[in-house]
Amino acid sequence: MKKYKIAFIGAGNVATHLSNELKKCGHEMVQVYSRTEESAKQLADSLHTTFTTSTETITKEADIYIVALKDSAVDQVLSKIGFGDKLLVHCSGSLPMSVLSQYAKNYGVFYPLQTFSKNRKVDFKQIPIFVEASSSENLNILEELANELSESVTILNSEKRKSLHIAAVFACNFANHCYAMAAKYLETKDLQFEILRPLIMETAQKVQELHPKDAQTGPAIRFDENIIKSHLSELKEMSDLQELYNSNSKSIFEHHQEKQ
Amino acid sequence: MKKYKIAFIGAGNVATHLSNELKKCGHEMVQVYSRTEESAKQLADSLHTTFTTSTETITKEADIYIVALKDSAVDQVLSKIGFGDKLLVHCSGSLPMSVLSQYAKNYGVFYPLQTFSKNRKVDFKQIPIFVEASSSENLNILEELANELSESVTILNSEKRKSLHIAAVFACNFANHCYAMAAKYLETKDLQFEILRPLIMETAQKVQELHPKDAQTGPAIRFDENIIKSHLSELKEMSDLQELYNSNSKSIFEHHQEKQ
């Protein structure tokens, strides 16, 4: 396998995990850029490489530039950098690949579908990676890189990747927010979030085999009006929770009235 | 350990799992009652016992009657049965123990905090069980039973149990509904739900160690307005999903503005 010189533009959760994993595979991390010095330095130190906070001093020496910034910062940062004929890649679920066409001749997308937190290890082999590129040569490079990291690599166009990202926001961010709301409520009642952990695991484990529609339980799907009313009344002093309880219960009930 | 004769009133998911587990521990399942013959027969057959669909022929021979009905059916069914001085127990998260006082002298609650689906095995040892009873003698019986089944047994009053149940609805039913909405959306885009399974597992695994507030990722917590707007616009033809996307994103953002 060819080993590449890679520069990271961005030093957040995705950049941290991806750069470390690529380094493990033998690629050389030549520089980290971030607008905040603390993040840039922290990631560069962990990779034993250099960092910069200025777009003007971004290295010319990399073969591949991987952009892992929040979407709204991408244009602002990239417009200040020249990439010549180097390969420019972003990791965003929702940005179309075409946003890169104005900054580079060779470009592509490398999207790992996972929730990354800095201090938490993940098994990259299990992470589905979705790639797309501006030419078949570039696609080959990204597919090879992805195959070094993961057992699940798929070529996917920008439109479908965006759909996948929307679904991931529901399945991950919104599911986690349900946990967070449960924790917030328990804390007002002097009960510990810990007690919910086996339930949360089983809820996720069930849908590893079942379709979520077949895995649903609880008062909303049974349309147990007494419970639902009594829960809503109990939540009357926490209007944010009450609103989420109401909209989710209605949505569950309606979803199960729809044709299978 | 004393072995009891137990009758089940109800033959749904909770009754199925709990009766089978109690039987494994050596207790005798003497009868199953359900309003629908199919459920009553199915559970009774699996327990090698008898069933009835008529409250008039409910056995007098049990030591303990365990009620696992939907909450709204409890009064209707119990008002037709005489329990004398037998121990009457319900498994509901939200019904207070006191609803049983008009039907029996000895009563209590046995609440396993888990999501049960009929054809799915669960490890009862890991399921937290919450008990409460009308006297210390009855409490001893229920604690002993619970300890035979699980490594996590807690005495909890009706008010706190209800709070726990509300939190469980968020952490389990609403989280599962997030998976269901993700699945529904992917199906309209010819993408498979399966692809989200590693993400769903990691989301649940993260909060086995982290507090959910520290585990959150995604566009809402970053307040990445471009993505949020573009996702909302993409969902314009699925108003149920659009509404949930909007309310969850707002709630995530507001939650992270609150003081830790």
Could you describe the 3D structure shown?
Two copies of one chain form a homodimer. Chain A is α/β, with parallel strands linked by helices and 260 residues long. Chain A folds into two domains: 5-156, 3-Layer(aba) Sandwich (Rossmann fold); 162-257, Orthogonal Bundle (N-(1-d-carboxylethyl)-l-norvaline Dehydrogenase, domain 2). Chain A is built from ten helices and eight strands. Chain A has helices at 13-24, 37-47, 71-78, 136-149, 158-188, 197-209, 212-215, 219-222, 225-234, 239-257, and strands at residues 5-9, 28-33, 50-52, 64-67, 87-90, 106-112, 129-133, 153-155. An eight-stranded mixed β-sheet of chain A has the order 3-2-1-4-5-6-7-8, with helices on one face. The interface between A and B is large, with 92 and 92 residues.
